Amino acid sequence: MEAGPRDTEQDAPDTQHEAGRLSPDGPDELPVTPEVEVELRPARRMRIWQLAPIVMLAALGSLMFAFPLAFEVGDGGPVVAMLGLLISCCAAGWGMMAARRVGHTWPGLPSRSSGERADWRVIALYVTVCAVLVALAVWRVARLRG
């Protein structure tokens, strides 16, 4: 008896390997299962530590704006009201930037990564609403002085 490598075709000539047969340019095509994409990162949403300072600043600014206008407190009323309006606007801007960072957009505007352009009518509507609100606030504060 000689020791040597085994000849598998002699042992089982009718069986084929499960991995597929070899062709001159490599293995035959194997059945491919469809891949499923799974997001590894958690969903992006605003956390409480992001919302709490924004809400507190907005509440403080609104109270500073509303009380002097409602109760007409002395000579400093318009100054306090305008400072409250400024704080409220800062809180709103901070909230918009935080929301944009987690992927939220204004209604009617496309998301940042979509590559679409915003409709000019939606932008004009937002600018008009903001201008009217600012005009009403300034008019009310100006009436306090007069």
Give an overview of the whole structure.
This protein is mainly alpha-helical and about 150 residues long. It is built from four helices and two strands; from the N terminus they run αββααα. It has helices at about 10, 50-70, 75-100, 120-145; strands at about 20-25, 25. A two-stranded antiparallel ribbon has the order 1-2. It is elongated.
- Unreliable segments of 5+ consecutive residues: none
Largest sheet, if any? 2 strands, antiparallel
- Give the % helix: 40-55%
Rounded to the nearest angstrom, the radius of gyration is 34 Å
Gap from first CA to last CA: 120 Å
How are the strands of the largest sheet arranged?
A: 1-2
Give helix and strand order, one letter per element, not per position: HEEHHH
Task: Quote the average pLDDT.
Answer: 76
Morphology call: elongated
- Beta-strand content: under 5%
Instruction: Please give the number of β-strands.
Output: 2
Strand pairing plus helix content: what structural class? Answer: mainly alpha
Counting DSSP H or I runs of 4 or more residues, the number of helices is: 4
Write the layout of secondary structure elements.
Elements: H1 8-11, E1 22-23, E2 26-27, H2 48-71, H3 77-101, H4 120-145
Antiparallel strand pairs: 1-2
Distinctive features:
146 residues
Offer a concise description of the structure.
It contains four helices and two strands; from the N terminus they run H-E-E-H-H-H. The chain is mainly alpha-helical. The protein has a two-stranded antiparallel ribbon.
